[in-house]
């Protein structure tokens, strides 16, 4: 059966429908994080060390939920925060605070650092991106794409346009992309096949 694909605007409207229907935003974020961890553990059952790269929006909030769950499961987890945590707000801030409360190790991005892990998690930017990436985010994309370490992208690979499937400057080349609620058309159009790897849908409801 053909997949039903949604634009970023339609996907955002679906999110709001669920929230308006009585599922709090942080509950959706928690479910997204749980689904991502299930995907991670299914695809890489022997992985023990994860490095999770977080930005500043709700995609980062998903990353912090993933990190918290993995810490509680006994995994070796490091979060690399790209941008100041003082800019986190809303559900993403709550996810960050809950992760800190369980003893999560968080370090700022350092372009000189040699990060190693069994799996890297891309929780930098989500489907709202509509302009070329630059600065530290672009440097992290270069880093992730220069290693043989497996990459799990959260909702969409950072840098990929959710509508066109084209990289906005550059994009993370993921091995697996776990996307939430609905399929975004940018995961199956343009040059998406070069960046998304296997696409897994978690409906969350």
Description:
The chain has 205 residues and is an alpha/beta fold. The chain has a single domain, classed as Rossmann fold. Helix content is 34%, strand content 20%. It has helices at 8-20, 25-43, 58-72, 90-101, 135-145; strands at 5-6, 49-54, 76-81, 105-108, 119-123, 150-154, 176-180, 183-184, 198-202. Strands 4-3-2-5-6-7-9 form a 7-stranded parallel β-sheet, with helices on one face. Strands 1-8 form a two-stranded parallel ribbon. Helix 5 links the parallel strand 5 (119-123) and strand 6. It is globular and about 40 Å long. The model has no long low-confidence stretch (mean pLDDT 96).
Structure summary:
The chain has 205 residues and is α/β, with parallel strands linked by helices.
